[in-house]
Write a structure and sequence with these properties.
The complex is a heterodimer.
Chain A lengths: L3 E2 L5 E4 L4 E7 L6 E7 L6 E6 L3 E5 L2 E6 L4 E6 L8 E8 L8 E2 L3 E6 L1
Parallel strand pairs in A: 2-11
Antiparallel strand pairs in A: 1-3, 3-8, 4-5, 4-9, 6-7, 7-8, 9-10, 9-11
Chain B lengths: L3 E3 L3 E4 L5 E7 L5 E8 L3 E8 L6 E2 L6 E7 L2 E6 L8 E8 L7 E2 L3 E5 L1
The chains are: A mainly beta, B mainly beta.
Chain lengths: 112, 112
């Protein structure tokens, strides 16, 4: 059974600070890792994908992957109130068309 | 821009009715997926398809069926709706080589 674990939160971060979101996964064969943002009542929106160990930066977002520790994280720099949402970590074993396994999400609140 | 559309944002049906949820994507994606999302349970995969007329069961296929007659369209069918199928239904699509998935806006289904 593939599992993806996230702290449900809420994680409260002051505006302008760095928000750090973490995710662990159980399937050591996982190849593809994703972060989605979901506003209340809306569908998930893809923010970042990462496939190899290390850091990947896109604007204010940085995804970090450590396959040895089975750990993936998302850093949001200069947090804005509009970043307040639930962040979903998703993992795929890769190499095929299987669906993603999602964590239950971390609720992030950016305090003005 | 990737566009995934779903036939309805909100739907109310009666117990025992046959329900059709439709999803259309305009990016020529091979893979299409149906998930349901419930509070405390997160996103769970119902069915997916990696080609026209192909379908695979996900983690919770009971009570559902699917149809993919054309590459751009993937339908979820509730043969006889029950109250425990009240949920947010999310369709996604993506290319097979990256595992990336893009979500439609979702359909909030209420079964009375």
């Amino acid at each position: 059974q593939k599992e993806v674990e996230q702290n449900s939160g809420p994680l409260s971060v002051p505006e302008g600070a760095i928000a750090s979101l973490n995710c662990t996964y159980s399937d050591r064969g996982s190849q593809s890792f994703f972060w989605y943002r979901q506003y209340s009542g809306k569908s998930p929106e893809l923010i970042m994908s990462i496939y190899s160990n290390g850091d990947k930066e896109d604007g204010r977002f940085t995804a970090q992957l450590n396959k040895a520790s089975q750990y993936v994280s998302l850093l949001i720099r200069d947090s804005q109130p509009s970043d307040s949402a639930t962040y979903l970590c998703a993992v795929n074993a890769g190499g095929g068309a299987d669906g993603l396994t999602f964590g239950k999400g971390t609720h992030l609140i950016i305090q003005p | 821009d990737v566009k995934v559309t779903q036939s309805s944002r909100y739907l109310v049906k009666r117990t025992g009715e046959k329900v059709f949820l439709e999803c259309v994507q305009d990016m020529d994606h091979e893979n299409m997926f149906w998930y349901r999302q419930d509070p405390g349970l997160g996103l769970r995969l119902i069915y997916f398809s990696y080609d026209v007329k192909m379908k695979e069961k996900g983690d919770i296929p009971e009570g559902y069926s699917v149809s993919r007659e054309k590459k751009e369209r993937f339908s979820l069918i509730l043969e006889s709706a029950s109250t425990n199928q009240t949920s947010m239904y999310l369709c996604s699509s993506g290319w097979g080589d990256t595992d990336t998935q893009y979500f439609g806006p979702g359909t909030r289904l209420t079964v009375l």
